[in-house]
C-alpha cells in the first residue's frame, strides 16, 4: 500500500496540471467604471435570509437618489444562493451569470442559511458565490472599515483605540487555498486525508498589488502587505512580487510587510496604524471580518468586488441572518453604502455616491437606529429595516442641489 507522504506527493504532482495560472502579463490599475450616462442596467441579487428586506430598503433609497439627480437605474432581479438552489437546483444558474455579465453593475444582498448547511458542497449557497467570483473575474475585494463618530460606542473596543480608524482591506478573491487544486478528501493508509493547495502565480499577485497600490495612492499613501513569508513559500513569492510592483510603479506609496498573525493582533491593539492592507484570499477573509468589527456592527460595512473589465459586484459584509429574516429588524445601511460604492467604482457617479453616504450619516445624526446599532440608554429611536431605508430616502429628497 502507498505510504501517506508518497500518496500526497503523487496527488500534488498529478493534480498540479489542473492549476492554470492567470495570463502572465501585468495589469494596469484596475479600478474602471462604465462611462457616465443617463440610464444604467443593474442586476439585483436579493439572495437569502434578510436579503430581500435590505434589497427593498436599498431600492427605496436609490429611487430617491435617481429622482433627485435626474438619472435612471433599471433594476432587474436574478437568483443566487439558497433561493437559486430551491428554484433551479443550482446556487448560481447560468441565466443569472449571463444577466450579471450583461449589466453595468451587480448589487448583491446576502446568501446562505441553516436550511442548506447539510447539502453537498456543490449545492451550498457559498458555492454559488465562489462560482460568481470566478466566472465574472472578480479578483479584487475592497472592504472599508471606517469608524463613524455617531457609532463609536457601538464598538467593543475602547474609544481611544477606534476613534478615527479608517482602514481599507484589499483582498485577492480568485486564487489561494480556496481555488487551488488538487483538493479533496481521500482514504489513504486506512484513514481519511483532507488536502487543499495554497497556490498563487506571479501574475495573480501582480494584478492585486496594482489594485492595492492604486487604492493606497488615493488614500493616505500607506500600504501594508500581509503574508506568512517566514513559513510559506507561496507567501515569499507574494512578498517578492508585491515589493517589486509597489517599488517600481507606485513610488508615492509607503510599503510595509507584516506576518498575518501579527497583523491580526495589531488590528485590535492599534488599528490606526493601518491605512490600506493587501492580502491573499484566506488571510483577507479573516482579517477583513476582524477589521469590520472595529466599527461595531457588520450591518454598517459595504464591500466591492471588481475585475479587470466588466461589471463589479457590490455587497454588504454581513451574512443572511436567518434568525431575524422577515421580522423587519435588519440593518439596510451596509447595502445602501454598497450601492454608494457601486456608484463610485462602476457607474462613474462619485458625486451621487457622496450624497448617499452623507444621507446615511445624516440619518445617524438624527438618532435613528436599527437593533444592531442601538445602545442601551443612548436616547436614539429604534426603527426597523423599512423605516431606516425610508429615512435615508427622505434625507436625500430634502437635500439642496448645488
Keywords:
402 residues, alpha/beta, ten-stranded mixed β-sheet, two-stranded antiparallel sheet, 13 helices, disordered N terminus
Record the SSE blueprint.
Blueprint (H helix, E strand, L loop, with lengths): L3 H12 L23 E9 L3 H19 L2 E6 L4 H7 L5 H8 L3 E6 L14 H11 L4 E7 L12 H4 L3 E7 L11 E5 L2 E5 L6 H16 L4 E6 L5 H17 L4 E6 H10 L6 E4 L1 H12 L9 E5 L6 E4 L16 H13 L4 H16 L2 E2 L11 E2 L2 H14 L4
Helix pairs in contact: 2-11, 2-13, 7-8, 9-10, 11-12, 12-13
Biggest sheet details: 10 strands, mixed
Strands in their spatial order, largest beta sheet: 2-1-3-12-11-4-5-10-8-9
Round the mean pLDDT to the nearest integer and report it: 90
Helix content: 25-40%
Structural class: alpha/beta
- Global geometry: globular
**How big is the Rg?**
22 Å
Number of helical regions: 13
Q: Tally of extended strands?
A: 14
Low-confidence stretches: 1-30
Structure description:
There is one protein chain. This protein is of the alpha/beta class. Helices cover about 40% and strands about 20% of the residues. The protein has helices at about 5-15, 50-70, 80-90, 95-100, 125-135, 160, 200-215, 235-250, 260-270, 280-290, 335-345, 350-365, 385-400, and strands at about 40-45, 70-75, 105-110, 140-145, 165-170, 185-190, 190-195, 220-225, 255-260, 275-280, 300-305, 315, 370, 380. The strands form three sheets. A ten-stranded mixed β-sheet has the order 2-1-3-12-11-4-5-10-8-9, sandwiched between helices. It has a two-stranded antiparallel ribbon with strand order 6-7. Strand 8 (about 220-225), helix 8 (about 235-250) and strand 9 (about 255-260) form a beta-alpha-beta unit. The chain starts with a helix and ends with a helix.
Amino acid at each position: 500500500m502507498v505510504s501517506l507522504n508518497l500518496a500526497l506527493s503523487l496527488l500534488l504532482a498529478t493534480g498540479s496540471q489542473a492549476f492554470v495560472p492567470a495570463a502572465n502579463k501585468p495589469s494596469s490599475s484596475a479600478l474602471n467604471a462604465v462611462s457616465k450616462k443617463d440610464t444604467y442596467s443593474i442586476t439585483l441579487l436579493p439572495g437569502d435570509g434578510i436579503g430581500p428586506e435590505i434589497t427593498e430598503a436599498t431600492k427605496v433609497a436609490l429611487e430617491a437618489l435617481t429622482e433627485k439627480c435626474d438619472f435612471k437605474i433599471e433594476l432587474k432581479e436574478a437568483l443566487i444562493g439558497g433561493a437559486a438552489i430551491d428554484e433551479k437546483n443550482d446556487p448560481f444558474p447560468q441565466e443569472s451569470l449571463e444577466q450579471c455579465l450583461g449589466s453595468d453593475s451587480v448589487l448583491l444582498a446576502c446568501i446562505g442559511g441553516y436550511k442548506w448547511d447539510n447539502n453537498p458542497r456543490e449545492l451550498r449557497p457559498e458555492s454559488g458565490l465562489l462560482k460568481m467570483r470566478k466566472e465574472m473575474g472578480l479578483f479584487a475585494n475592497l472592504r472599508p472599515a471606517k469608524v463613524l463618530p455617531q457609532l463609536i460606542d457601538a464598538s467593543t473596543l475602547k474609544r481611544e483605540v477606534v476613534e478615527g480608524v479608517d482602514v481599507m482591506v484589499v483582498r485577492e478573491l480568485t486564487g489561494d487555498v480556496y481555488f487551488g487544486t488538487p483538493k479533496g478528501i481521500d482514504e489513504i493508509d486506512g484513514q481519511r486525508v483532507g488536502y487543499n493547495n495554497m497556490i498563487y502565480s506571479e501574475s495573480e499577485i501582480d494584478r492585486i498589488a496594482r489594485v492595492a497600490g492604486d487604492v493606497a495612492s488615493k488614500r493616505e499613501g500607506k500600504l501594508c502587505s500581509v503574508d506568512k513569508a517566514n513559513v510559506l513559500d507561496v507567501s515569499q513569492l507574494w512578498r517578492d512580487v508585491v515589493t517589486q510592483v509597489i517599488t517600481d510603479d507606485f513610488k508615492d506609496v509607503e510599503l510595509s510587510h507584516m506576518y498575518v498573525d501579527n497583523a491580526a493582533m495589531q488590528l485590535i491593539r492599534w488599528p490606526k496604524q493601518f491605512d490600506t492592507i493587501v492580502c491573499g484570499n484566506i488571510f483577507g477573509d479573516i482579517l477583513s471580518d476582524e477589521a469590520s468589527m472595529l466599527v461595531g456592527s457588520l450591518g454598517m460595512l459595504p464591500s466591492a468586488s471588481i475585475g479587470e473589465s466588466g461589471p463589479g459586484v457590490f455587497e454588504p459584509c454581513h451574512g443572511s441572518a436567518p434568525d431575524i429574516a422577515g421580522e423587519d429588524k435588519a440593518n439596510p445601511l451596509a447595502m445602501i453604502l454598497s450601492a454608494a460604492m457601486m456608484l463610485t467604482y462602476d457607474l462613474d457617479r462619485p458625486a451621487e455616491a457622496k450624497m448617499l453616504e452623507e444621507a446615511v450619516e445624516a440619518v445617524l445624526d438624527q438618532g435613528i437606529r436599527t437593533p444592531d446599532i442601538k445602545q442601551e440608554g443612548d436616547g436614539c429611536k429604534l426603527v426597523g429595516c423599512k423605516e431606516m431605508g425610508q429615512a435615508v430616502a427622505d434625507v436625500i429628497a430634502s437635500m439642496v442641489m448645488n
